Amino acid sequence: MKIADAKVIVTCPGRNFVTLKIVTDEGISGVGDATLNGRELAVAAYLNDHVIPVLLGRDPTRIEDTWQYLYRGAYWRRGPVTMSAIAAVDTALWDIKGKLAGLPVYQLLGGRARDGVTVYGHANGETVDEAMAEVARYVELGYRAVRVQTGVPGLATTYGVTRERGALAYEPADSAIPSESVWSTRRYLAHVPTVFASARAEFGPDIQLLHDVHHRLTPIEAARLGRELEPYGLTWLEDPVPAELQEGFRLIRQHTTTPLAVGEVFNTIWDCHQLITEQLIDYIRTTVVHAGGITHLRRIFDLASLYHVRSGSHGATDLSPVCMAAALHVDIAIPNFGLQEYMRHTPETDAVFPHGYRFADGYLYPSDEPGLGVDIDEELAALYPYRPASLPVNRLEDGTVHNW
Amino acid sequence: MKIADAKVIVTCPGRNFVTLKIVTDEGISGVGDATLNGRELAVAAYLNDHVIPVLLGRDPTRIEDTWQYLYRGAYWRRGPVTMSAIAAVDTALWDIKGKLAGLPVYQLLGGRARDGVTVYGHANGETVDEAMAEVARYVELGYRAVRVQTGVPGLATTYGVTRERGALAYEPADSAIPSESVWSTRRYLAHVPTVFASARAEFGPDIQLLHDVHHRLTPIEAARLGRELEPYGLTWLEDPVPAELQEGFRLIRQHTTTPLAVGEVFNTIWDCHQLITEQLIDYIRTTVVHAGGITHLRRIFDLASLYHVRSGSHGATDLSPVCMAAALHVDIAIPNFGLQEYMRHTPETDAVFPHGYRFADGYLYPSDEPGLGVDIDEELAALYPYRPASLPVNRLEDGTVHNW
Amino acid sequence: MKIADAKVIVTCPGRNFVTLKIVTDEGISGVGDATLNGRELAVAAYLNDHVIPVLLGRDPTRIEDTWQYLYRGAYWRRGPVTMSAIAAVDTALWDIKGKLAGLPVYQLLGGRARDGVTVYGHANGETVDEAMAEVARYVELGYRAVRVQTGVPGLATTYGVTRERGALAYEPADSAIPSESVWSTRRYLAHVPTVFASARAEFGPDIQLLHDVHHRLTPIEAARLGRELEPYGLTWLEDPVPAELQEGFRLIRQHTTTPLAVGEVFNTIWDCHQLITEQLIDYIRTTVVHAGGITHLRRIFDLASLYHVRSGSHGATDLSPVCMAAALHVDIAIPNFGLQEYMRHTPETDAVFPHGYRFADGYLYPSDEPGLGVDIDEELAALYPYRPASLPVNRLEDGTVHNW
Amino acid sequence: MKIADAKVIVTCPGRNFVTLKIVTDEGISGVGDATLNGRELAVAAYLNDHVIPVLLGRDPTRIEDTWQYLYRGAYWRRGPVTMSAIAAVDTALWDIKGKLAGLPVYQLLGGRARDGVTVYGHANGETVDEAMAEVARYVELGYRAVRVQTGVPGLATTYGVTRERGALAYEPADSAIPSESVWSTRRYLAHVPTVFASARAEFGPDIQLLHDVHHRLTPIEAARLGRELEPYGLTWLEDPVPAELQEGFRLIRQHTTTPLAVGEVFNTIWDCHQLITEQLIDYIRTTVVHAGGITHLRRIFDLASLYHVRSGSHGATDLSPVCMAAALHVDIAIPNFGLQEYMRHTPETDAVFPHGYRFADGYLYPSDEPGLGVDIDEELAALYPYRPASLPVNRLEDGTVHNW
Predict the structure, then answer these.
(1) What is the distance between the alpha carbons of residues C20 and C25, in angstroms, rounded to a whole number?
(2) What pTM did the predictor assign?
């Protein structure tokens, strides 16, 4: 069997998505997500100009060989653009392999290791009260775990807080040219513990609570925040500091037992192998699309399992339903699953990407169709042309570029 | 689908083998090797009395769940008996999964990552000349790599040296009650470098040469031997010291660049994770049957790949053709394959275990049939009842029990 | 003198026990416990089929030689089945040696290093009140140390909590096919500190309190629990996390001064040498039966003594009176004894294993008869045939296999 | 002042180059190299679609602010595509800044720290004799340092060895679809020491000799090679192993004093900070174009200077004259300069990129014109449209994908 065709489909049914579709000479097709929020067309070019020409004619069943060919053969390894492109190929080939086998992909990964995939939703509000109302809404929907973000007094905008109430969606990539926010660590640190004091007072000890710092602290600041949040028993504190300096987490770890989650921006196992092997984190949040596909992501999770680190995959709306489908096959199969982020896509997105996974009672369930159980409706996709959209930029009060 | 039947078959077509056969309610069967040389009936009892009762009625596609159930559920983890039993179940379930998918198992593991599996054979002789004649024979057969063992002047018997010339087989488990050998490290160390000086002089730089110390040295002795062998460019020096003390390999490593291979006696990733993560070895020789099956062995090899460690799986005749078949599916699929040991089974064994893998030009090739491509002929197996056979015991010249 | 006979006796006077009995040509007999809860018949087969044949004719006084012969000669080292079998031989040979000497075994180990062996009992209850009533009962019985386990609100069953009130016995191996429990770390962590707050409030600072986590947390979760329990001055927190990754305990150790105890599932010194040499624990809980017998256990405790680690041997009812007798001889003789677990056997068990050790005022005292001072009544034993019984399996709320 | 225009120019005057040209509202222009060999159009798209829109209107003098804006603002950090795009912007802004100051860029970096930039050339030959003739030619040209690569007996092709004799150029990206080579570590290791024995015998101790392993060994193999090359006093052994696992270099370092150089594939300081702070290397070979521009490269070299590590920048023909010009300004200004690689471009390339740097007597000298002293002739560039060209893929003899 050979790969007969491969194409990149860029569509914007509410937000931009890049999808790779591979078709074999026997007519079997597979899809892979290649979306890199705000840098979509660089991945599209990487695939169109440099990857697709070498895919044509290859044996689609040789997934490992193809992964190594693209990773080592590129010479220039790692990074978000490269690894998202490789991920798209890998995901599509697993989709094809599942169809060849007549089995859902999770069966090829070892079968179901649990009944359903526990997800967490995003509750956010300008005020603490608004955020609490959102938490209540998720609890009603059956969620067992909720991430809580609120506005910070004195700051005009805050990460994770949507402007539209009741949207169940939050899209930070809100402008062709990045919008700019202003950040104050001092104000933030003073505020956050009060949010979780309210949440525990209102919702009791059972609901799992999470919070995303979004890379904005230094390790010693994160250590302080982690310790101050200890009375509220968070499931995790996410992305407390930028993580290029993996050893930087040692300092946080010395000071607090609040569990730590990191990894949505990681692209390979090398971005986190020290975080894992030194047990500096508790949840590794790498995704199928940005971390080299199912083949590589599984290796990250396997390394993590040796060191008591569980998965906690990123699952914001910037990942298409193709990525979510693939993530669920991995989630249901690995021994050390933790939590899966879940933000619902718009109806337009759901229509462009017909899929068989479903939500019930706080769990997501992968499709039982052969392959990934997700497809792209190319005609519908063509109705939504690409619209440039960028993530915001963050500055300190003195104008210094900070981490967004 | 459910597991409808499972049974343990003990047979001795030349040597003892323990095989687990699992049959589903849809009539699909799978086989797994459970042979533990010299301790066969303990594994058979572990399976018959404690594992098979919990397998009946389980979903055979839930391989990871079953692995965790048997590993964690036993409460008493690790060790050769436990992990061989788990391995047999895991291997049989992968065989079934491949048949369900209509694909050879290597396809479920990511597809072919290479064309064939490079193997090495065993050349041995009482004298150096006899051993060189054996090397020549392997070279003629197309082998690219040969392990060389010879008698040691002054010692009556030596590990790895068969008494029958030209046998192509060497069976150390030669007696119901263990035979006893006498060992002298001093004589051994003085002799081995001369063997490899001869081999390089006679066969030139191209042939890959290996040597097995079989756990008989201390680290500083192994360091000396490794350094003295450096001029002969060995592919590996195997099992230089007993490896319970993983950090003990640091001392060898400081002194020599001769590559090291270890692991045929390991049962889990915990027996080698320090050897791997500290890069104290170059080849990890864990096997499907003794290291928890395909599911666990793949995790060991994946960890190894991060640290420049390649696979070098044990493949002596104490592993049945079922294990060899499974090993070849793993070997062909992983990115960091190194070498596969290959000792040919007797014709009787080959008849009891009909299999589709084949040797050509120095390579072994896994079968392309669905599943593992190996089976057990139960009627034939029944003709060869179990015969107690033990590995030898080794003593120093003063009578101290030493490592065999 | 030679070993003239050896046999394995499996009996179930309330629960299953495996006992090895060795008889010399001079008619001296010794007994060793070989019970591996839920995997009994694998050890029995290991002994019957692979060990007893090599014991016959050996000199029973060569205990060290026999230990090395079985450990190194098996080739496949370590693990619960292997080490329990070796332990049984070793224990029986020490029993014989004591009888040969006309001395209790503790005399051969160096004599009494203390007057009595401090033990701890198990107080458990569905509710905190029930558990407190049990603690009171142990205090009345003279116990100085009590392990406290309670039900967890929202969980149907909990480790260590018997369904029969006032039983003084708790047998988790309650079903031929493992029963399945559901676990919630969140609920557990929220509850445990309240138990010990009650215990200290009710019983004051003098009573030694212990708690067994039974492997169910990750290191950071254990760190949190350890810190939260600090006000209650526990003697130890037991088995906080699965311990294959010994370095994993570093993280717990950074965060809390609550003493840690580990080791009932360990089989050799290699399972804990890093825990000990890095001072990651305070009590090592290895047992005679699962850790290679008196010969090997003494070596573990000797290493521990270098690093301020004390003994804290496992002593649940799954160890027969033979093991308890042997443990007491070790306990009374070593310099770094800490605590001995003590769960009372059923009257039927006590009758099958007549023994001379006795409880008084919170202490156990080994027998002063020659040897171990324990025997097996074979005729009585024969009245209680083996009944399959398995330890439970534990699952998370989503169905993932967890540690029981 | 504002950025009024920015454009990406892709041209192929012998090989492909991607160049960013930024023009201010005052008509000052600057150029930056964005060439990523074999992945050119992904960087072009990254710049065109995602970077240029945010550049327009920005103050071109705020180089640091722009660097942070692009690095942190992208959210998805690191990797070759991202960092090459950022490098192009940064380089162009330094060019503009120099023109604004009326000074060559090296003056803004601290001024000349040396008289000239020592370079090394590439001598290569199928045979050792051919390679020696090439070395002689470089010596005649005044070079003080020469990298030597030769064919390996038994291998059809070898890295670094051009097919055209006397070309002074070697272009590995030789085919739209990657050509495939076959590699044998065994043959290579047996051959290389003989090359340097010849070179020292023929050219004496003065000439600096270098060798590039091009990522093809494991650490222990590299350790062996480094040790065997010690008698020949190499200036450096380059890229001995793939370097994602920075700690992997510890093993090489234990065994040999042959200096090590690494880094042409690195994109940020995080790719080498452990290599540097643990002193695992001697030369850091990061480039302006792939490591984030002058701003970031200078920080890498500054860190290196703390740890006795010198610069040794990559300078193959895949970097355009724009990158070479920028590299020379850095080289002449930093305190810890080591060596600069120098492969001459084709006359067509030199014509498309008119530049003022010059070679004399083994040194390169940066231009003294304001800015970088290099430009792009857009009309000429337009005559050479992009031609797809890929770097080769390397396989082991058994077909496994290896590092090229």
Answers:
(1) 17
(2) 0.97
